[in-house]
Amino acid sequence: MTQADSALNEENTMKAMVHDEYGPPSVLGLKEIDTPRPKDDEVLIRVRAAGVNWADWSMVRGMPYIMRLGYGLRKPRKGLRGTDVAGEVEAIGADVTNVKPGDQVFGWCTGAFAEYVCTGEGSVVLMPPSLTFEQAAAVPMAGMVALQALRNVGKVQRGQKVLVVGASGGIGSFAVQIARSIGAEVTGVCSTNNMELVRSIGAEHVIDYTRDDFTQGDQRYDLILDIADKQSLSVRRRVLVPKGTLIPNSGHGGPWFGSVGRIFRAWMVSPFVGHRLHPFLSLPKQEDLVALVELIESGDVTPIVDRTYPLIEAGEAVAYVGAGHARGKTVINV
Question: Roughly what angle, to the nearest 10 degrees, separates helices 286-297 and 140-147?
Answer without folding.
Answer: 90
